[in-house]
Design goal:
The structure is a homodimer.
Chain A (H helix, E strand, L loop, with lengths): L13 H8 L3 H9 L6 H14 L5 H7 L4 E6 L5 H14 L5 E6 L6 H10 L4 E4 L6 H10 L2 E4 L9 E5 L1 H14 L5 E6 L16 H15 L5 E5 L3 H13 L6 E4 L2 H13 L8 E3 L16 E3 L2 H16 L7 E4 L2 E3 L11
Parallel strand pairs in A: 1-2, 1-3, 3-4, 4-5, 5-11, 6-7, 6-8, 8-9
Antiparallel strand pairs in A: 10-12
Helix pairs in contact in A: 1-2, 1-3, 2-3, 5-12, 8-9, 10-11
Chain A binds a DNA duplex through helix 2 and helix 4.
Chain lengths: 348, 348
DNA sequence: TCGCACCGATGAATCCTTTCAGTGGGAGCA
DNA sequence: TGCTCCCACTGAAAGGATTCATCGGTGCGA
């Protein structure tokens, strides 16, 4: 009769391995970390013991003294295709390193700082975060403790590295394209701005969507047209509803520039539902998610190479872990991919 | 002059809080964990001290003695929409608990056991994994140490809980639907089976895709038709290429049943590219990912409610953490959603 | 008034790994 | 032969939080 029906067997520790191999704990630790000062004989002994005992180092214990060999990713939306590309790029870049990635997803209505904190609590060796709206002063405090790379922030910091697309160029390309097609009623659909406007939201610190919107306004005004900006939630379904509203109006737009592809997909859905297509309304998105190039979708969009963004984020973080202390910035090129949704004019 | 230019300030510890509040470490610990035996006065003192020092408990240190309050998710593909739904459901279910989720994504060509191990190394309190092809004996060993819920495994275990959709019913509905439409040349496109066939791959332990394929064969044979099964990689682009091949053949299929929606999207892409549509080739997928219901896509698919799957996975795990020891199974209902891609016959 | 029970709080032990200051022995050199 | 230097290896301390005995103090019943 066992007193504890669910007794969980204790996994073997570095102590067990040391005993089994007849050496000290420190020696085992050295072998594991490939540290200096290990004879071939001892390495063989220890390796064999590790095999026999199926020993695996406890990350929590390592983290207390040394490194956790873990990089943390904070991403606001697990399902977002653009973010997925970033993660893919990062995963690939990490394959050849001893580092493991963990992702901390955000719950609904959670802010990025919650997840960033939770990663820091786990003593990850570095953090990549995509939180355009978190207070930069707070981020700097985090970066004092843990190397930090922010994706999609146009602000400058001495403490953390930043990675962005060239949002200005991307938006310029979209507007040139649409204006070039002869459109005059171009509506811009984007996500709600932070409310209340945070004190740090200056020109320099503009988030990508805000920057894209700014370029839209500039170009519309410069062309003598009046800008029309519609704000929705990040979710595509609200973009869908908003678009239905736009299309029902008497002077409906002939083109819609969506702040990102998630919104653009929602827009396309509404256009189709209204019985219209690209001959009636041109649609352009941003991010160039994989589904955009599907022939049934054919969404024009700005490619800012999410894969590269993720890869660069990891590179910057690894550099930091190797000792770099000055902050760096990386900006990815933006390229408009024209597809059917904003096809050439009205010929079909 | 500072000797260390990048000196990282030491975050405050429970010791610091205890000193600041004038109590013992253990008392602080109790306050944090809402444990029994804390006076209101002491709680107030400690809470104030925590605020002042911006104290956050180190998860690594907690994990060494107690719990890490972390649940780990192993998912094979970050970008997969079906898996995303599962994660969303789980995130939601965790909002009201003290537990945090971390996701361990798989690198290209990595097997699930790598990520599961890495989660176990991090001493998560429980693991949810989606690895249809990992040795069940190995999983049972993992489950001895860490509560484990497997999603999408039809095998039975005394050690870990399982969550599945009703793949048999789902596949039956697809076949009834397609046969009912009058199709006779129905091709099944699915992912490569494990190779070599693992010894544990019996009828009972069949993975979802294998089960769906089995039902397809049964129904074809029962209808006096000859099954045609095409295997591709998980990636949709290979499904695209394979479909182009199928469509070029003289007796091309009039219907394609894809093992999941990722493949089905690739199939639709090839169909469109070949200048065909649903009048020529009916397509049905599996999982009912969000994009399937987009009017431009209109993919018929089997809904097995990923959100619910994720929510149930968390529920089962939390039950385990509260002491349940016997293994449970949960099976989600499968419902075919018919859309344009397999619309009613050939009227358009 | 005495004794008991119990509440609230505490010190010390514990979890597992890394790191640092040694220790002892062997090789090389004069 | 004697000295120094180097190298492989070891013991012990450190790191932060939890938990277990333990202890002082208070309230209550007899």
């Amino acid at each position: 009769m066992s007193t504890e029906p669910t007794r969980r067997p204790r996994p073997s520790t570095i102590q067990d391995v040391a005993r089994e191999a007849g050496v000290s704990r420190a020696a085992v630790s050295k072998v594991i970390r490939n540290a200096y000062g290990v004879s071939d004989h001892m390495r063989a002994q220890v390796t064999a013991a590790i095999e026999r005992l199926e020993y695996r180092p406890r990350v929590a214990a390592r983290a207390m003294r040394g490194a956790s060999f873990t990089l943390g990713f904070e991403i606001p939306q697990v399902g977002n295709d653009f973010l997925t590309m970033i993660v893919d790029g990062a995963t690939e870049a990490l394959m050849s390193t001893p580092y493991q990635m963990i992702i901390a997803p955000l719950g609904r209505d959670q802010k990025g700082d919650v997840a960033i904190n939770s990663l820091a609590d786990r003593q990850v060796d570095g953090i990549v975060a995509i939180s355009p709206r978190v207070d930069p002063a707070w981020l700097e405090r985090v970066a004092e403790r843990t190397p930090l790379v922010m994706i999609g922030r146009h602000d400058r910091s001495d403490r953390y590295d930043t990675i962005t697309g060239d949002d200005r160029s991307g938006a310029e390309q979209v507007m040139s394209h649409l204006l070039g097609l002869g459109h005059r009623r171009i509506t811009h659909l984007t996500i709600h701005p932070s409310r209340p406007e945070p004190p740090w939201a200056g020109q320099a610190g503009a988030e990508p969507h805000v920057l894209r919107t700014a370029v839209y306004r500039e170009r519309m005004t410069a062309a003598g047209l009046s800008p029309q900006v519609v704000h929705t939630l990040f979710d595509g379904s609200e973009a869908h509803a908003a678009t239905l509203g736009l299309l029902a109006s008497p002077d409906r737009p002939t083109a819609i520039f969506a702040g990102n592809d998630t919104l653009a997909i929602g827009v396309l859905s509404a256009v189709a539902e209204a019985g219209l297509d690209a001959r009636d309304v041109s649609v352009v998105g941003y991010d160039d998610v994989p589904i955009a190039r599907h022939p049934l979708v054919g969404l024009s969009s700005v490619d800012q190479s999410g894969i590269t963004l993720g890869r660069e984020a990891v590179r910057l973080l690894l550099e930091r872990l190797e000792g770099r202390t000055e902050a760096l910035r990386y900006e990815a090129e933006a390229v408009l991919r024209v597809r059917r949704s904003s096809g050439v004019g009205r010929e079909g």
